Amino acid sequence: MDKTANRMAWLSGKLNRVLGRFDIRLGRASSFENLLSELAGREARLGEALAKLKEPQNHERLLGLSKQRWRGDEPADGLTWGVPMVGDEFVRFLTSHVTLTASSTIVEIGPGYGRILDALLKQAVPFGRYIGLEISPARVARLWKQFQDPRIEFREADVLGDFKLNAMADLTFSSAVFEHLYPDFGNALDAIAQFTKPGGSTLIDFIRDDERLDQSGSWFDHETYIRVYSIQELKELFEKNGFLIREFGRISFGRDALRREITRTIVFATKGDTGRFDEAWYLREYPDIAKSVAEGRIESGYAHWIKHGRNEGRNAPPEYEEGSSFDRDWYLNSYPAVRTDIEAGRAPDPEDHYRKLGRHRGYLPNRFAPRPDNPAGFASRFGGLWPDQANAQDLIEGRRELGRITEEQAILLRHWTEKGFVILPQALPAEIVEPAFGVLKRAYGGQMEEVRFECPTVGGYNPVFWDKAVQTHPAKALDLHWLSEEIRNLVFAAPIREFLELIFERRVLATQSLTFLRGSAQGYHQDTLYVPFTLCTQFAASWIALEDVQPGGGELTYYVGSHRLPEMLFSGRFKTLRDAERMLRRNTLREEMADYSERLAINSESAGLSKDKLMARKGDVLLWHSDLIHGGMPISGSLTRGSIVTHYCPKEVASLAFEHGRTSVRSHEGKAWYSTGYYK
């Protein structure tokens, strides 16, 4: 049998498997023409078979068949293209389009093996309650064991069936589920609309063919129902069920078992707004408005409602629910401070004002929008320092107006809040820098016997005494501030101490210092991972240049504004490595640490953050936020980069090293405090 015959036999077999459900069978075909002839001869019976699909008994049979596979208990890679997927890109899209708070209720349709929820937890996306609706009882049981968080619950439920959520959702989302709902997802979306709050959001992804976005079709592959939707079909189904599509996006789940990229169309939509405004009803109800629309004096009934009708006390159409649209005129008229702030240059227009300032004051985008429980709170569930509050810009302005800080300090604090760092150029004079540099040289020259070093070439990451290798390989002299008054005079110099007192609002405690002869060449990281405190977000760091930095000398580099990215937690719970090591199995932690630096860089790049390189001069100081993503550039040749890094916290906050009995704390001239984790 030649290749053509083989192909025809294969095609005939596939068709027979489909048509066999309706007692239709094609004969053997040795050519394409013969196959066409047989199909033409069966046209009448094929029409009858298609008509059977619409009969109630066949609809119910196929509906049951479409659910059969998903009620079972497949392994993770069976559910997603032969390889387990992660939900990072889905969650990145989610957090860039939806603002959640610690009181938000979120619902997931078909959590499967928990990949989206896992990504939400690792990125520390805030929410108050999560409800996962899963059709498989076995997966529900497994998910309950996997996620032991009091905010999270799972229910065995069929989104196409009869169930009651008994909750109202701020956000509903689903991934790799809706293309399997028979015959389409309209009924599921209608169910979602019933428990979604007015103005609430939904995010759902679908199969995508980048070359044919207008493609549509549906089929059964054995017991699996698959439907591909065109963009127009998606738009019609969402709008029919009361959702207004805000954006069609493209995301990727990586590659399947055959190394093909898995691309998805993700739909972001909100409930209410024009998608549910019954224009015909409004014009019937108000003939004067219909007349104005007909004469072209106003664009539409909806335009009249937004601009005039609701303020005139007219009724909205039945079931219409005001969404999250921004009402510029209402916003300006409701909040007098908006005009004042715009005139002062704090925002260019009302919408920008709402995004940057208003929403953190509890201002609403329109009169019908829900108000968050704590709009001025911290983004992190771990809290932070006062500049980490959502309304920090207002707090800074208030301190300036009251005379508690100067204009220069206000500028620094605004930069800290927005960018995650401040640079104090030439802040430290030579009479402080030179003696400290001399201590560094003595330590690296082996002249200070008590000094401990961390040098991977010599002792891995364990403290070791001096070895000649520390002069030529990346190394850190540990806690020289404990041993040297010259170093203390440097790290507690007035410009550094005074800024830290601004953000701490109390005296400063230096708990750790790392002194470098050469660059660290350390991968990207956040200090909250490696530098643990009892209040894990209440600390900051300084980097002081003891000599001019040369290109190729292991320059410090950082992502501007990265302190405001969603948090990356271990097992969705732990922000510090110390607590993760205490509470997690080692193999679990090792897996999560494997690509830690790479994920930080990817998240920063995906957020469009710029990467800066610090070409510092002797006496320059960089102060940075505990969550700023930073690292060291590679070192070229024998170049040195004399510098010192110090970590500080408010004086009553404790380093976790204290919990191991290393609790010595001393005063520096009555103005600051210092401790060590390495010396007595």
List the helices and strands and how they pair.
Layout: H1 3-19, H2 32-41, H3 43-53, H4 56-68, H5 76-79, H6 88-97, E1 105-109, H7 115-122, E2 129-134, H8 137-146, E3 152-156, E4 169-174, H9 186-195, E5 196-207, E6 217-221, E7 224-228, H10 231-240, E8 243-255, E9 261-271, H11 279-285, H12 287-294, H13 301-309, H14 328-334, H15 336-343, H16 350-361, H17 392-401, H18 407-419, E10 421-424, H19 430-444, E11 453-454, H20 456-459, E12 476-478, H21 480-483, H22 485-491, H23 494-504, E13 508-516, H24 527-530, E14 540-545, E15 556-559, H25 577-583, H26 586-593, H27 596-606, E16 611-614, E17 621-625, E18 630-632, E19 643-650, E20 665-668, E21 672-675
Parallel strand pairs: 1-2, 1-4, 2-3, 4-5, 13-21
Antiparallel strand pairs: 5-9, 6-7, 8-9, 10-17, 11-12, 12-13, 13-19, 14-17, 14-19, 15-16, 15-18, 20-21
The best one-word shape is globular
**The CATH H-level homologous superfamily of the largest domain:** q2cbj1_9rhob like domain
Distance between the termini: 87 Å
Range of strand content: 15-25%
* Total individual domains: 5
So what's the CATH class of the largest domain?
A: Mainly Beta
CATH architectural arrangement of the largest domain: Sandwich
Q: Into which percent range does the helicity of residues fall?
A: 25-40%
Q: How many E-type strands?
A: 21
Average pLDDT taken over every residue: 84
- Count the helices. How many? 27
Strand-pairing-aware structural class: alpha+beta
- What would you report as the Rg, rounded to the nearest angstrom? 31 Å
The biggest beta sheet reads: 9 strands, mixed
CATH topology of the largest domain: Jelly Rolls
